[in-house]
Amino acid sequence: MSQLEARKLLKIPESSTVFLFFGMIRWYKGVPELIDAFKVLQSESTYLAITGRFRDADEELADLIQKKVKDDKNIKLVTGFIPEKEVQVYMNACDAVLFPYRRLLTSGALILAMSFRRACVAPRIGCMEEILDEAGGYLYDSSSGDGLVQALESANDRKNDLSQMGEYNYQIAAEWSWETVAQMTLNVYQRCMEDDNS
Q1: Which of 155, 116, 103 is nearest to 134 (CA)?
Q2: Which parts of the chain have pLDDT scores under 50?
Q3: What is the rounded distance in angstroms from the CA atom of residue 198 to the CA atom of residue 183?
Q4: Up-side HSE of residue 18: CA atoms within 13 Å toward CB?
Q5: Neighbour count for residue 168 (Cβ, 10 Å)
Q6: Which end of the chain has less Cβ packing within 10 Å, N or C?
Q7: What CA–CA distance (Å, rounded) separates 168 from 149?
């Protein structure tokens, strides 16, 4: 699906800058803070799509986010499970995928975004800075009060660079085939066994 087709489905103007949060919506993923940071941009031509589902236990979080996005025409909130066939609608509609996480160990959503040729905005923590570099998006200091805002502003101001960043991310993600990752894992085990035998 082309970006134009995806944006038509989401009723987002073709010429807009579109940011996306995609995946399970949990407290540690920082979505309320993301909404606040996005609102600082105050740009009529920039949209934020928040797509994913809440756990039943996170009713308070769901209520908070729904209140924050209410009456904001530039924020699209789509809750619930997204079928595999519809993932491309959201990924192809956006210019960059956002990861405003407070903490994390791994992120399958980051690899997914990279495989869709998308630029990424993420905190400089954990696997984010191991996988993503400045050529593929914007890494920000999560301990800084305005780190996320600055990263969003940079991405918004340099919209024309986002496509190239996404292409860079795709080239990296394409190297991580199942076979490559399996071989890397096997190498770790073999080194551990060699150390034990010496």
Answers
A1: 155
A2: none
A3: 22
A4: 27
A5: 18
A6: C
A7: 23
Considering Cα of 10, then 66, then 19, then 110, what sign does the dihedral take? negative
Q: Which residue matches tokens 């969003």?
A: 152
Q: Could you read off the pLDDT of 10-51 as tens digits, one per residue? A: 999 999 999 999 999 999 999 999 999 999 998 899 999 999
117 sits in the region (left: phi over 0; alpha: psi -120 to 50; else beta) called left
